[in-house]
Specification:
Blueprint (H helix, E strand, L loop, with lengths): L1 H16 L1 H21 L12 H31 L2 H6 L5 H27 L15 H22 L3 H18 L11 H7 L3 H14 L4 H25 L7
Helix pairs in contact: 1-5, 2-3, 2-5, 3-5, 3-6, 3-7, 3-9, 5-6, 6-9, 6-10, 9-10
């Protein structure tokens, strides 16, 4: 527990001291919200008749939270391994659960703050998001989503050896997934084959769960389904992450 507490404290301090990363972590999803919100302000999706903001806001929020989880842990693990920090940590009483657990708690904290800030902005009259009564149910969906995408970030950070490699691999995963999962474009307006493809992507279920909770776009069963599927993804990706984790590039 002392190793976990020390690593968590050190990770928090390092994060808040990096002003550039801190700013863009929270500003990047808001930038997309502003752009899409202004473009589609007052417009509705023809297939469903619902305002675009009901699709765009939950989708962009989900993508922003997932993106932060993947990039955050991916870059840190790559840098720690490249600088032999992980090898030094391994020589201490700290074990792998403490290392990953400290990053997990930080990722959860960042994700929750991102969500609160994002929703607060989306509720402004300029964007017009209206929260449904079940909006608190977005919390478990976000936590499970962050867990699944953090595991993906661990896998990326375990293989990539340079910052450029982390950025390339993570972007190749997250940007196409954002479009195929409906983060930037409503799934209702997509071809059938794209909707079918989205069913194997974790971001699809994070989008669906957050959207159902925040805007009431679906029944409560959609939230339960999203949580169950995201938990499954978290278990699978987590097992792969533990199997592929490397303490040093020398191994």
């Amino acid at each position: 527990m002392s190793a976990y507490a020390a690593l968590s404290t050190a990770g928090y301090r390092a994060y808040v001291r990096d002003k550039t990363t801190l700013f863009f972590t929270f500003a990047f999803p808001l930038l997309f919200l502003v752009v899409f919100g202004l473009i589609f302000h007052g417009k509705t999706v023809e297939e469903s008749g619902k305002p675009y903001i009901n699709y765009i806001a939950p989708g962009v929020l989900s993508w922003g939270v997932a993106n932060a989880a993947v990039f955050g842990v991916g870059f840190v693990l790559m840098q720690w391994r490249r600088d032999d920090i992980l090898r030094l940590i391994r020589m201490t009483p700290a074990r792998l659960p403490a290392v990953l657990g400290s990053r997990y708690v930080l990722a959860i904290g960042i994700g929750i703050v991102q969500a609160v800030l994002f929703v607060a902005v989306a509720l402004l009259p300029s964007f017009g998001l209206s929260l449904a009564g079940g909006w608190p149910l977005a919390l478990p969906v976000l936590v499970l989503g962050i867990t699944a995408f953090l595991a993906i970030g661990v896998i990326v950070g375990s293989y990539a050896r340079t910052p450029e490699a982390v950025a390339a691999v993570a972007n190749c995963l997250m940007i196409p997934m954002a479009f195929l999962s409906g983060s930037f474009f409503p799934l209702d307006a997509m071809p059938d084959w794209m909707r079918s493809l989205s069913l194997v992507l974790p971001l699809r279920y994070l989008n669906d769960g957050v959207s159902a909770a925040l805007t009431g776009s679906g029944p409560a069963g959609d939230i339960a389904t999203a949580c169950a599927v995201l938990a499954g993804f978290a278990v699978v990706f987590g097992a792969v992450a533990l199997k592929t984790f490397r303490w040093s590039d020398r191994i």
